[in-house]
Amino acid sequence: MKRIYSLALREELVEKNPCFKVAMLAENNKRDKVISQEAFNRLLSHLPNYAANIVQTAYHTRMRSGEILNLTWDRVNLKEGYIDLREEETKTNEPRRIYIPNPLRDLFSRLCKVHQISQNFVFTNREMPVRSIHGAFKTACKKSGIQDFRFHDLRRDTCNTNVRKAGAHRSVIMKITGHKTGVMFERYNTVDAEDARLATRLYEDYLGLQITSSLLQGPSEPKKTGQAGLLNPLI
């Protein structure tokens, strides 16, 4: 209401804002949703292939949903192993290079081999660009027993936490994820390509340990028919 009156006052539709002295209530919108490797495997097993490809990309690259869905093959360099996003393709309006970790190399190579020449989008379903996986993701979370988990949590909490635990410096994480907030991070403004490559290698090593630990503990449930290779993102 306060905002509505402020806009009306700016447009000279009202003479005053009767809510201007109303204090704003404290808002706690912080989320801390990190899923385990085992839960992530379950989630993948309940997703159709086209959606599982997108979820794995979000999990391993820290890319935003819009950056993934709008990704085209001219932005992907499989030989060197990175994705280049132009400034107009990112939320922060800054170009960003994202190095592709090993769990995604085979996935991107496979998608590249089967994509239609006339279709430049990386992620498609029935030869058409995927515009949303909201319904498929919500259904998979429900079937997997994962509560209060959103697609953006793959980037914001799960992947960032994995990279941090792998040993990458927070300033490097902010650079490769495209985060601009954090006063303490701003003074570390020299982050080069080698820093980003090191962060990716550390992440791969950490993820490998998590996968090994998950395999040693044994699967919690049998693989789902038709989803071979999805339960372990490294396969």
Describe the protein.
α2 crosses α6 (134-144) and α7 crosses α10 (193-217). Helices cover 48% and strands 6% of the residues. The protein has one domain: hpI Integrase, Chain A (Orthogonal Bundle). β4 and β5 (128-129) form a beta hairpin. It has a 3-stranded antiparallel sheet with strand order 1-2-3. The protein has 10 helices and 5 strands; from the N terminus they run ααααβββαββααααα. It is mainly alpha-helical and 235 residues long. Mean pLDDT is 79; it is low at 183-190 and 225-235. The chain starts with a helix and ends in an 18-residue tail after the last helix.
Write the layout of secondary structure elements.
Layout: H1 2-10, H2 37-45, H3 49-61, H4 65-69, E1 76-77, E2 82-85, E3 96-99, H5 102-114, E4 124-125, E5 128-129, H6 134-144, H7 151-166, H8 170-177, H9 183-186, H10 193-217
Antiparallel strand pairs: 1-2, 2-3, 4-5
What structural keywords apply?
globular; mainly alpha; 235 residues; hpI Integrase, Chain A; single chain
